[in-house]
Amino acid sequence: MLPRLLVNSSNVYEYTTRTLRNNGGTSKFKGPWFANMDFVITSDPRNVHHILSDNFANYPKGPVYKKIFEPLGDGILNSDSESWRAQRKMIQLFMKNNKYKELVEKNILQKLVQGLFPILDHVSRKEEIVDMQDVIQRFMYDSNCMSVLGFDPNCLTIEFPEVAHAKAFDIMEEAVFYRHIVPEFYWKFQKWLQIGEEKKLSRALQTFDQFMYKCISTRAKTENIVEEKEAAGFDLLTAYIKVQMKEHGNSAASSNKFLRDTATNLLVAGRDTPSAGLVWFFWLVAEHPLVESKILEEIRAANLVKKR
């Protein structure tokens, strides 16, 4: 089925949607026998609920998945069974905390007012073309770094700076995608020789890990000082460090790997899915002026109610 996919590569989403519609919402893709590209695509909410909720234990990710997603380490997106349950329970506990909810709301509002709006105003006045996917990814990366790491990398500015750890983050994700579309022996051979995409991945991992371990070290020092801890807010890394210190003490160097993997997984989950959804939302609004008008009417009506 690969030739058909390549022919439709310029409109891959429309092609996939059409294929799913013609097959009742679920379709199996057969790739070349040597490429490890056989997979099932579904848009049926019942299937998604069955796999991710009702019968999650029946769908382990397995060792092959973990090898491909090596940059994620042992975080929740790469784990199964008891490890997955324990991490999920802890994440849910932190995310239901009112302090964390307030922090996320505050961070997003700050990035909207100080980052996204000024950029959109600027390109609108200059009548410049801007890549909305890049803009929204920068917005989500900054927001998530603030909520997860307690650190603002300031990727979302009018200058569109190239931030080393953010660029490394992108390269890591590209390498994982690359591992999906080439035979396992090929990317392993590249890794062994340190050439091609695997060489890029190794360098990106080194850059990103230096950034992550620096954040962990900084937050751990802050956690030891009560006054600074209270001022720092409730970012997830600080919350995890607090738990780790209770369990392992201050000399828990072995737990730094867990903190690195956990924070990396949270950044991956918190950036790409929301940013992809927002980009599609803006595209759909742009394609449907009537919907845009109704949204603007609701915003104006809400503002009038607030003023009253």
From TrEMBL:
PANTHER family: CYTOCHROME P450
Keyword Oxidoreductase listed: yes
A Pfam family matched in the record: p450
Protein's UniProt keywords contain Oxidoreductase: yes
Names of required cofactors: heme
Keywords attached to this entry: Heme, Iron, Metal-binding, Monooxygenase, Oxidoreductase
GO molecular function: heme binding; iron ion binding; monooxygenase activity; oxidoreductase activity, acting on paired donors, with incorporation or reduction of molecular oxygen
Stated family: Belongs to the cytochrome P450 family.
Signal sequence annotation: none
Protein name: Alkane hydroxylase MAH1-like
Biological source species: Populus alba x Populus x berolinensis
